[in-house]
Amino acid sequence: MSGNAMGWAWRPRQAPAAPQAAVAWGDVARRLHARLLLIPEEQASRLHATANRDVLLVAGAAADLPWVDGVAYAAMDDRAPGLWLPTSWEPDVPSDLLGQALAKKFSRTPLLLWRDPPAVVPLDRQLPVTAQHLQRINAYWTGR
Q: In this predicted model, what pLDDT tens digit does every residue of 5-44 receive, in sequence order?
């Protein structure tokens, strides 16, 4: 368990949540991106993705989520619909209150709250997984 400036800690979930998104950081994000380029268009059409310099998140039904070694999973918290959390970890404070505090602080929703690395990632710019969207992500990452 790790603490933070807001005075709460992470604890393992008693039962993991069903995955609704694949989350990949650093080199794993690049491998997940490469995997997305290979999936059938029909499967890709059911997925949405967003990325920043460090992370790639791909949301969709668990059966459609691509897998690569090192990927982790997230799900929307039932008690705080604008808050996404790791499937195996949860805050030790009420997630609805934490979600409200984060939404106010960041002025955006939904948000992914991640344990390791510690991060808050806005998810309000998810777009359908298309060749064009994947190309834009790659261009962003490579600075082109």
A: 568 999 999 999 999 999 999 999 999 999 999 999 999 9
Distance CA 22, CA 83 (A): 15
Note whether 20 and 72 are within 8 A (CB).
no
DSSP 16: P
Cβ–Cβ under 8 Å, residues 113 and 98: yes
The model's pTM:
0.92
For the chain, the domains span 13-142
In angstroms, the Cα distances linking 23 to 87, 94, 100, 105 are 11, 23, 22, 23
Q: What is the pLDDT of residue 5?
A: 56
Q: What is the mean pLDDT of residues 119-138?
A: 96
DSSP annotation string for 47-102: -EEEE-SSEEEEES-GGG----TT-EEEEEETTEEEEEEETTEEESS-HHHHHHHH
How far are the Cα atoms of 50, 68, 132 from residue 120, in angstroms, in the given order? 13, 22, 26
